[in-house]
Amino acid sequence: MAESKSNGSKSKTQAKRATTEAKKSAVKTAKASKRAATKTAVAEKNQVQGVVQTAVDFPVGAVLTVSDRVSELVEPWTDRSKAERQIKNYRSNLRKSLKRTERRGSTARRKAITEARKTRNQVEREARNRRREVETTIKRNRTEVESRVRKAIEEQTSRAQGVVDTATGVVGTVSGQLTALR
User: Fold this and answer.
1) Distance between CA atoms of 18 and 10, rounded to whole angstroms?
2) What pLDDT is attached to residue 11?
């Protein structure tokens, strides 16, 4: 029985310890959840604050930029000497721009003329080569045709001569026979 009493007190102690540990664990978990929620809230607050600042800063910056640009545009015209200097600068820049444009046009024209000349020379060279090839082909074909015609004439002449010789022989024979018959 003594053992059961000691077992009973052990289980009570263990139960208390388990309960205390559970409470501590719950408190830790609650504190961690609270810290996470606080972190999330702070992050969201910072994000919203950044968006709001951007929404306010952008128009102010735009107005300041426009104001600076207007000041830059108006400032040279506020004094007569500054205005004359500005006009002189505009004239000088315009002159430079016109010269640059003229040079570009001149360069483009020269390039176009050179390219046209190259193309013309190439076409002429190709035409000369083709003409030479055609003339050579015509000359070769003419020589060949003349040779064939000469050969054909000679053949026809020799055949005709053969026919004439045969006819002369036949006429001579017939004439001889006619003379013998008379």
Assistant:
1) 12
2) 84
